[in-house]
Design brief:
alpha/beta; 339 residues; 14 helices; 3-stranded antiparallel β-sheet; 7-stranded parallel β-sheet; 10 strands
């Protein structure tokens, strides 16, 4: 069964970790190439290489566990000191070197897939150099993933696009067209998830494919992107960019860690109100998907990260039930009702 994921960052990595436990699934992950914050800013400016962090995270997520995990720990190690090294992960530096050795980012991906015994395909959404642009409800405009991702004050995005003409990677389009199921999210709605969808050719492929679409919303809102959103407004925003309804929505109804929730609320964020409508033509699945412990940042990591995450095994089991047809009869009845 062909399963394609679209996203990036830790959210999609957790989906990959959960799904790779099911060996009968043929997994593909499409990741964005627009990150220009932290280590990726240096990679783009000094080495002329497209962002590598989401590629690196996908490689680690899909890699087979080794006996003691040291190789994985080494690949994800982030320098906390050192002039020119602080903030970089060793994995990113190794991928720069491998890109130079093999002559391309795709060559580096294939080399590390071999080294880490990765089962699955890791596909950049595009190889063209481009930046994200957000236009806000106050008339201002910001260019660059990092500036959009970490604003100082909240504003609502009204228009979201790329600053140049790009072409979707053909293998990424093919992975959408040949999939049986496509999983979108979780991840920052604009800078992680929609950053892939707005690449020309991706939304068109999503409209054309016969695959069922599954949306996994984030656990909490984020400043500059989804603050004040509800589950339904987030879903409709996503569908507006895709041009097609989702078939399934997988919503967390588990309790978030209390201390993390308190910090989010104090910073102005919100849990998304569950206002998803019944009989909307979608199957809404509510289940406990949250990791029970609060996430700690790595030493040397200067970027803002989420404190709560989805639990990989919970995600994997819930999605596998969808793939294997537990919810298929429900969807069939709904679709029949609306014909």
């Amino acid at each position: 069964m062909n399963i394609t994921l679209i996203g990036g960052g830790t959210g999609t990595s957790n989906v990959l970790k959960g799904l790779k436990l099911h060996k009968d699934l043929d997994l593909s992950i499409i990741v964005g190439m627009m990150d220009d914050g932290g280590s990726n800013a240096v990679i783009r400016d000094e080495f002329g290489v497209l962002p590598l962090s989401d590629l690196r995270k996908s490689i680690i997520a899909l890699s087979e566990e080794n006996e003691n995990g040291w190789i994985r720990d080494l690949f994800t190690y982030r320098f906390s000191t050192g002039n020119g090294l602080k903030g970089h992960t060793l994995g990113n530096l190794l991928m720069i070197a491998m890109t130079d050795i093999t002559g391309s980012e795709m060559g580096a991906i294939e080399a590390f897939k071999y080294l880490f015994s990765v089962r699955g395909r890791i596909l950049p959404v595009t190889f063209d150099n481009t930046e994200l642009v957000a236009e806000y409800d106050d008339g201002t405009k910001v260019q660059g993933e990092h500036l959009i991702d970490a604003p100082k004050v909240h504003k609502n995005i009204k228009k979201f696009y790329l600053n140049s003409q790009v072409t979707a990677f053909k293998e990424a389009v093919d992975a959408i067209l040949t999939a049986h199921f496509i999983v979108i999210g979780p991840g920052d709605m604009y800078t992680t998830t929609l950053a892939n969808i707005i690449v020309p050719g991706i939304s068109e492929a999503l409209q054309k494919t016969g695959a069922k679409l599954i949306f996994i919303p984030n656990l909490m809102s984020k400043i500059g992107q989804t603050r004040g959103f509800t589950q339904n407004s987030m879903l409709e925003t996503m569908e507006g960019y895709i041009g097609r309804k989702f078939d399934y929505v997988l919503v967390n109804n588990g309790e978030l860690p209390a201390k993390a929730l308190e910090r989010y609320i104090a910073e102005g964020e919100n849990v998304f109100k569950d206002d998803l409508k019944k009989n909307s033509g979608r199957v809404i699945i509510r289940t406990d998907l949250v990791a029970n412990s609060m996430i700690k940042k790595d030493k040397g990591d200067t970027l803002i990260r989420s404190l709560v995450r989805h639990e990989p095994e919970k995600l994997g089991e819930a999605l596998y039930e969808i793939f294997k047809g537990k919810w298929g009869r429900v969807l069939g009845k709904i679709l029949t009702f609306y014909r």
